[in-house]
Amino acid sequence: MGTCTATGGEYNGARFSAEQHSNTLDLIDNATVVELMAVDGVNGDVARQIAAGRPWFEFPDPLDAIGQLPAVDDGVMLALRDGTMDGWCLQGEGRQNCCLDISCEGLGGWIGEVEVLDWESDALLEWANNGTTEDLELVCGIGPSIAADIIAARPMRGVKEFDAVPYIGAATLQGILGRDGYGCETQGSIFEEWCSLDGTCTCDAE
Question: Which of 31, 119, 127, 132 could cross-link to 35 by cystine, CB 3.0-4.6 Å?
Fold first, then answer.
């Protein structure tokens, strides 16, 4: 059955959200060869190599190990990321142990006195959980110290956990979110600096 622990990350150039990461971990350890091939972009060679390498959950980083397979290239990783929900998770055959709904509803909440909307929360948590130090420091109001505090707080599953990161007050948070009147001259918001990257920020603006 394996483990359902997943926080997202970048593999072979494909950025995975926590939900996409968890869903792909579920697929690679539980789907048959035929079911693997039902994911658009996964051919027979890839499916057989994935099945032969099990159990993947025993690897320190299963998706990194998958990325080392001879038949797996950047296109296959993108296929796993983008096709697992429809090709595996929504099949509902009772063997989907770790699939998570890729949904924005209910993600939002209050961080201090600032209300963070559902789609903003998706972007905020994706950036906070998956960005490198350099990615974090590109965003308005974030320097080395706060970037280190964000990394130390991982994994963050909700906005309440982000609220616990030291030295992020209302003004800094509004700058991170790109709210009117809170911009920075040399740094952008998470939507400018992070959501422009492929595979990030899966929720549409409300």
Answer: 31
| First-last CA distance in the chain | 37
How many structural domains comprise the chain?
2
- CATH for 167: 1.10.150.320
Structure tokens at 74: 């950047």
The verdict on residue 43 lying in a domain is yes
Residue 110 φ/ψ, nearest 5 degrees: -105, 135
Low-confidence ranges of the chain (pLDDT < 70): 1-7, 93, 101-103, 199, 204-206
pLDDT tens digits for range 146-191? 999 999 998 787 888 898 899 999 999 999 999 988 889 899 999 9
Residue 4 within any structural domain of the chain: no
85 lies in the same domain as 114: no
